[in-house]
Design brief:
Largest sheet: 4 strands, mixed
Helix content: 10-25%
Radius of gyration: 20 Å
Structural class: alpha+beta
CATH class of the largest domain: Mainly Beta
Order of helices and strands: HHEEEEEEEEEEEEEEEE
CATH architecture of the largest domain: Sandwich
């Protein structure tokens, strides 16, 4: 079987696994298992093909794979969305505040399109993105500065582990939350003057923390993030999204940054 057929089967099962993620646990697990089953031979066959091509035409590592995941954080378009890459669906019915797992793509330029779930008549946004070899990216739908606009924010993810420490990134994607400071409750400041679309990293000792979000320079907590559990050698991203004064309300989500198939 060629890498293209393995790739097609992997994508099909990934879409089904995502669809059943919050609907049917048994089906989610079954399709997710099928996705992983086809993912590894796809990568193996694809890379072997590229290595053979390198010997024949002197190609280079630009033919390797990169990966991406997508977070739906736009409050203007907070209904579920479908994500298309080069006019092909890769994620369907992604809810507001939902984030996909990483999926792999060959290195290159791609046209990302976001549509209201189940429709393809008019894109909410269409934007070009670049996937580089052996790099991971988080793409966020977010509110643009223009009224009722949506943009795609791209972040390159640093997935290198820090032994015996936890690496945490904070990303500010709340459109009406001003610049903020992030502090440990009763402790030190972690990040200062974080603006919309900013991403900040820090390494901490493993443990359980309570963070506070404060207006930049302020002393009072505007929002509290309890029970942040950090494990040794793990990477995490914490997103602040939603609106302070309107709906959808301000919320925080935390995800572990990890690839299921790490080359």
């Amino acid at each position: 079987m060629s890498w293209k057929k393995f790739f097609g089967k992997a994508i099909r099962n990934k879409l089904l696994a995502d669809y059943y993620h919050d609907r049917d646990e048994s089906k989610h697990k079954r399709y997710h298992g099928e996705y992983l089953k086809y993912l590894e031979p796809f990568v193996s066959h694809y890379e072997r093909t590229q290595q053979e091509s390198m010997h024949q035409v002197g190609s280079n590592s630009s033919n390797e794979l990169g990966s991406m995941r997508v977070l739906h954080a736009s409050t203007y378009e907070s209904a579920p969305v479908d994500v298309y890459v080069n006019q092909k669906p890769v994620v369907r019915n992604l809810p507001y505040s939902g984030i996909t797992e990483y999926f792999f793509l060959p290195t290159g330029e791609y046209q990302m399109e976001i549509f209201p779930a189940g429709r393809q008549d008019e894109a909410i946004l269409s934007q070009s993105v670049t996937i580089r070899s052996r790099r991971a990216y988080t793409l966020n739908t977010a509110d643009a500065e223009s009224d009722l606009g949506v943009e795609l924010l791209s972040y390159e993810d640093d997935l290198r582990k820090v032994p015996r420490r936890s690496k945490v990134r904070f990303i500010h994607v709340s459109p009406d939350m001003s610049r903020v400071d992030i502090t440990v409750k009763g402790g030190n400041a972690l990040f200062l003057d974080v603006d919309f679309s900013d991403a900040r990293f820090i390494t901490l000792n493993p443990g359980i923390y309570t963070w506070e979000i404060r207006s930049a320079g302020g002393k009072q907590a505007e929002f509290t993030i309890p029970n942040i559990t950090l494990k040794s050698g793990k990477d995490y991203t914490i997103f602040a999204l939603g609106r302070v004064s309107e709906t959808p309300a301000l919320q925080v989500i935390m995800v572990e940054d990890t690839l299921e198939y790490d080359r």
